[in-house]
Specification:
By secondary structure, the chain is an alpha+beta fold. The chain is about 65% helix and about 10% strand. The chain has a domain of about 120 residues. Helix 2 crosses helix 3. The protein is rod-shaped, with a radius of gyration of 42 Å.
């Protein structure tokens, strides 16, 4: 899986927004989650609610994005932060490492790709499917019309055949009633 696909798999939809979680971003930026969150808290004025929000326990459990580990000390003490596209862009000004800059470029491309996929693809596919359904419907109507025409023609031909057979039967019966000429030698001594 290339880096763009890896990033796209870490983009979730929560509260009607496409977001990335702090742990996924920390992994991509190659820093610990607590280090990322500390940098954000030191610059909290850069992250209003439309840039970043903290998930509730219900959202964590409902979305099944955050999996809690059963082992002691390995479960979440704090609910994760979710960063919108704007929040991820702001992270590049907070984290100034070269890895952060490169990863941020890839993340922005992933968000754009997801947006394009959602905006363009279903609409064009829907229009294309409607057109194909319309064409299929017209084709089926033509086939049924042709079949009905063939059935009508076939019905007429069968009636003609039955009529001809009936006439032949009548002729055959008339021939049976008429005396047949004798076959053979004619004897004149009789």
């Amino acid at each position: 899986m290339n880096q763009l696909q890896t990033i796209q798999s870490k983009i979730y939809e929560i509260r009607g927004q496409r977001v990335m979680l702090d742990r996924d971003l920390a992994e991509l930026y190659q820093v610990e989650t607590r280090v990322l969150n500390q940098a954000v808290k030191r610059n909290i004025e850069r992250f209003p609610e439309d840039f970043m929000f903290q998930l509730t326990k219900e959202e964590c459990l409902k979305s099944q994005i955050v999996t809690l580990k059963v082992a002691q000390g390995q479960h979440l003490k704090y609910m994760p932060f979710a960063f919108t596209e704007l929040g991820v862009a702001m992270l590049s000004s907070v984290l100034r490492s070269t890895v952060a800059i490169q990863v941020n470029i890839h993340i922005m491309r992933a968000f754009v790709a997801v947006r394009q996929l959602i905006a363009v693809s279903p609409l064009s596919e829907s229009i294309q499917l409607r057109q194909e359904m319309k064409e299929l419907k017209e084709y089926i109507e033509e086939v049924f019309a042709d079949q009905n025409d063939i059935n009508e023609d076939t019905r007429l031909q069968i009636e003609l055949i039955n009529q001809t057979l009936a006439e032949l039967q009548v002729r055959s019966k008339e021939r049976e009633k008429a005396p047949r000429p004798r076959i053979g030698f004619i004897r004149y001594d009789e």
